[in-house]
Amino acid sequence: MIVRPSLHGRLLSLALGAVLVSGLAIRPAAAETVAEFLKIPTPAADPVVARIDKTEIRRSDLVAALTTMPPQVQQMQMSQIYPLLIDRMVDVKLIAAAGRAEGLAEDPQVKRRVADAEDRAIQEAYLDGKVKKQITEASIRKKYQEELTTNPPDEEVHARHILVASEADAKAIIAQLQKGADFATLAKSKSTDGTAREGGDLGFFSHDEMVPEFADAAFAMKPGEISKTPVKTQFGYHVIKVEEKRQQKQPTFEDSKDEIAGELQQEMMAAMVKDLRAKAKVERYDVDGKPFVAAPPTLLPKQ
């Protein structure tokens, strides 16, 4: 499905393109960005910002239009956006008035689109009232603590390795290390892995970031320990040295709260929809209007 931008959006986009090319600027009452303007509460009087015959456009209408603008537009100066947006809002009112004069308000397709837009607006208002108001900092913090408890931090290992093709070569390297040879120096001269130039340094990694055989061996070792026997994987034979271990750093509340708020909203919406469905009689039909019967799930391949 192709989503067409609204006439308002298309007209404003054209105007914004013109202002970016021409550098048009009009002296504002206050030098501020659109985002800064949107933080200012609309006065109770809700002043008129434009009038077309008897139709009025008020500041609240302006705010509603600005709120839908993309982030890059909201960082522009109100001195640029305001006159352009007012002109475009006037254009929209004029075109709509012309359409009404031709009876388009009674057109079935127009009525359907108006009803769809009304449904979306009511849905958003309902969700704001039933869901978003319940998502408080306290509820977000509670879920954050629950996730910390149920998802304890994983252990990470910082290790080096030397990779060779044969078990005999690996055993010879272990013998040299046991006699006091420097691990990083041997890795640079003996290892066939791409980390050889860094002395075999793999940095920190979690268990699931390495192949099982390598991870099992590394996580079973202590800091400073070198593997006593070669560790075989699909890549060859490894000699491993564990440098240190640590617990993964858990995300802070500030870093997590937006994501958690989104999760809470999805959970609440799913529960609300489930409840609404349980209270309603929902009938489903196929595209021809016949009763819809879903095929039973199967794991068997089609014959």
Task: Throw out a few tags for this protein.
303 residues; alpha+beta; four-stranded antiparallel β-sheet; two-stranded antiparallel ribbon; 50% helix
What does this structure look like?
This protein has 303 residues and is of the alpha+beta class. It has helices spanning 7-22, 34-38, 59-67, 71-74, 78-101, 108-130, 137-150, 167-178, 183-190, 212-220, 253-279; strands spanning 48-52, 55-58, 155-164, 201-206, 231-233, 236-247. The chain has eleven helices and six strands. The strands form two sheets. The chain has a four-stranded antiparallel β-sheet with strand order 4-3-6-5, with helices on both faces. Strands 1-2 form a two-stranded antiparallel ribbon. Strand 1 (48-52) and strand 2 (55-58) form a beta hairpin. It is elongated and about 95 Å long. Mean pLDDT is 86; it is low at 1-5 and 17-29.
What is the topology?
Layout lengths: L6 H16 L11 H5 L9 E5 L2 E4 H9 L3 H4 L3 H24 L6 H23 L6 H14 L4 E10 L2 H12 L4 H8 L10 E6 L5 H9 L10 E3 L2 E12 L5 H27 L24
Antiparallel strand pairs: 1-2, 3-4, 3-6, 5-6
